[in-house]
Amino acid sequence: MILELDCGNSFIKWRVLRADAVTPVDGGVVSSDNDLLVSLDAEKFQLKKCRLVSVRTSDETDSLVARLVAAFGVSVVRAVPTREMAGVKNGYEDFERLGLDRWLALLGGYHLAAGACLVLDFGTAITADFVAADGAHLGGFICPGMPLMRNQLRTHTRRIRYDDTAAERAHESLAPGRATVEAVERGCMLMLRGFVLTQLELARQYWGQDFVVFLTGGDANLVSGVVPDARVVPDLVFVGLAMACPLS
Ligand SMILES: Nc1ncnc2c1ncn2[C@@H]1O[C@H](COP(=O)(O)OP(=O)(O)O)[C@@H](O)[C@H]1O
Ligand SMILES: CC(C)(COP(=O)(O)O)[C@@H](O)C(=O)NCCC(=O)O
Ligand SMILES: [K+]
């Protein structure tokens, strides 16, 4: 079986495929290397190969790879930056600086859309990437994700304090907040939605109506209502990972 990993700044997303490299068997989201090893061990998969993408430091990624090799004897292939792949041209001045999760998600998006696309990823950070119909990556935008926005306010103010249950309840409406938790949660939500609407506007300026919007990342559901036509593809990074790291 094949293990696929997407190591983000907050969570590791994992997925196990059959040896055909197509059929998913199981998957999950874990917050540490340890938890990953426990999940995989407990499930008793016959892992032979692993492909992964990481936006963590090389040291962190090396250490995880070493543990996977020691625990399961897998051979590991890592996604690496490329200037051009599958008809897509990396738009960064320094192509190696583009986050690999962004690169894979936009490769996956362009492949699925077979045309112009806007890829929005809602993780620790929120990212937007624009790929034109001819495969030119025009670049993108990065801003803080929902957890970062709310935690910045909690950390850098003295009187913004509330718990997660209250936060969840606050999202039942977007009316002006009548309590701190509502004011903050709804304020951050409106920033997030405003960001998304601005990206859509920009895409329309470039391409009219002729583009596909993809939503991915752990918090994609927060905005799916704002973009009813968008395709919510939680495993978009894995689509790109399979393209960038074919297993022979
Ligand atoms: N099962 C889950 N476990 C953890 N976080 C989740 C889960 N489902 C949704 N989320 C949301 O996803 C966000 C993290 O998104 P993710 O794409 O995993 O980030 P990153 O790639 O930066 O690690 C969290 O802030 C949380 O709100
Ligand atoms: C923008 C990111 C922090 C997003 O990471 P994530 O929220 O998925 O954990 C990551 O793609 C990254 O570290 N990129 C390098 C900088 C860049 O893309 O310009
Ligand atoms: K991500």
Description:
This protein has helices spanning 33-43, 58-72, 100-113, 146-156, 164-170, 180-207, 236-244; strands spanning 2-7, 12-17, 24-30, 49-54, 75-78, 84-85, 88-89, 117-122, 125-131, 137-144, 212-216, 231-232. The protein has 248 residues and is of the alpha/beta class. A 5-stranded mixed sheet has the order 3-2-1-4-5, sandwiched between helices. It has a 5-stranded mixed sheet with strand order 10-9-8-11-12, with helices on both faces. A two-stranded antiparallel sheet has the order 6-7. The longest helix has 28 residues, at 180-207. It is globular and about 55 Å long. It starts with a strand and ends with a helix. Catalyzes the phosphorylation of pantothenate (Pan), the first step in CoA biosynthesis. Substrate binds at residues 92, 99-102, 180. ATP binds at residues 6-13, 124.
Please specify the SSE layout and strand pairing.
Layout: E1 2-7, E2 12-17, E3 24-30, H1 33-43, E4 49-54, H2 58-72, E5 75-78, E6 84-85, E7 88-89, H3 100-113, E8 117-122, E9 125-131, E10 137-144, H4 146-156, H5 164-170, H6 180-207, E11 212-216, E12 231-232, H7 236-244
Helix pairs in contact: 3-7, 4-6, 5-6
The chain binds adenosine-5'-diphosphate, the ligand CC(C)(COP(=O)(O)O)[C@@H](O)C(=O)NCCC(=O)O and potassium ion (K).
